[in-house]
Fold this sequence. Notes:
Distance between the termini: 39 Å
Strand content: 15-25%
Radius of gyration: 20 Å
Oligomer: single chain
Number of helices: 14
Strand order of the largest sheet: 4-15-14-13-12
Largest sheet: 5 strands, parallel
Structural class: alpha/beta
Number of strands: 17
Amino acid sequence: MFDFTLDGTDGGARAGTLVLPHGIVQTPCFMPVGTRGAVRGLHPDEVLRAGAQIILGNTYHLHLRPGEDVVAAMGGLHEFSGWKRPMLTDSGGFQVFSLSAMRRLDEDGVSFRSHIDGSARRLTPESSIEIQWALGSDVAMAFDHLIPGQASHDDARDAMDRTHRWLERSRRRHDELSATGPGRQTLWPIVQGGTHADLRRASLDGILERGEWSGIAIGGLSVGEPKPVMHRVIEGLAPHLPVDQPRYLMGVGFPDDLIEGIARGIDLFDCVAATRNGRHGSAWTADGKVNVRGATLRLDPGPLDAECDCECCTRFSRSYLRHLFVAEEQLGQRLVSIHNIRFLLHLSATARARVLDGTFHAWAAEWRRRYFSKGSPE
RNA sequence: GGUGGGGUGGCCGAGUGGCUAAUGGCAGCAGACUGUAAAUCUGCCGGGCUUCGCCCUACGUAGGUUCGAAUCCUACCCCCACCA
């Protein structure tokens, strides 16, 4: 039910197959983010047609609205949302970071001031797991303490130690729940430790000491640290990660981040950028970023990305897309979101094929050269 | 024809003697966004240049008052409302 097999490797890059209760995921793979039980603005069929194999939901947001009790009463997140494929839920750990201005952290958990109505909300490792269990995701994430990329060694150690203690509690509660419904959901731990190599190793060791896992996530990256630092952290961890488990780089990334992550052995990614940038009119192509509102597209009859097979690129012109954005028609946001998701999914699928035929690194080199050829898109 | 109101940068619209190249908003242009408090945010937006500064041209038109005017005065042109 929670199986991962390695289908092939090419240097440090990997291709695998992850089996989950609601379906299989061929890796490397990008997971679109559906924070509130929907990939923002999109119909589940559009997400599926873009090639998505698994999407994310969020514990904190679904707990606030509509509440896990509602979701459970409606048959769980899959039934409720109409997305019948695999789902992973983030634990709310990211909100400890992103909502730091309106939360108070203590050893037991985190008290939030709801961003919706100001009411007091509390998340602990146990409650996060209970919520995720009620939501019914295929993969639950441990409740972690995420810190900014600039955090000091002391702060990073403190957060890492807490993440370890919270992991034990997350695991205990999840084991208890799993005893009542075996095979429903698996729990993945999250490596923390900031930008500090020794702490990253210590974090991983602490996780491996605390039990058997079906997958391991690397968190706390792309939170303000330079990209080379992120690469170094992944490189430092890769040789020590269990070979037979999927490696999930949380919250990453942009197209080049997928390439760099895959090159360093990452199997799974998720990122809001595809949909957020899509809504904001920024599209990815093999030649770098395109500003969909840009004046140069005014009379451009061509597709957003000539090589893309998505519902946006096979039917609509750049001129029309620009018009939709300028006129603030929602369709524009939807179409570019679909394109960006498709772009990352096609990219990860191509990477998989290249790993399997042993040409990944040469292909990646060419991909980088082209993506960055028009100046620096990132 | 009479009376009243008004003409400000692409548009709308503040400003009634110096702190005004001129508040705002819109439109336009460029950029940001990484486990979603984001259909959001930031910058530019009269022209030119050696652009953390300098120079030119600017508030209907033409004159005038003043050290100094978008702001005051005179004439003219135009617009709107009402009255004939």
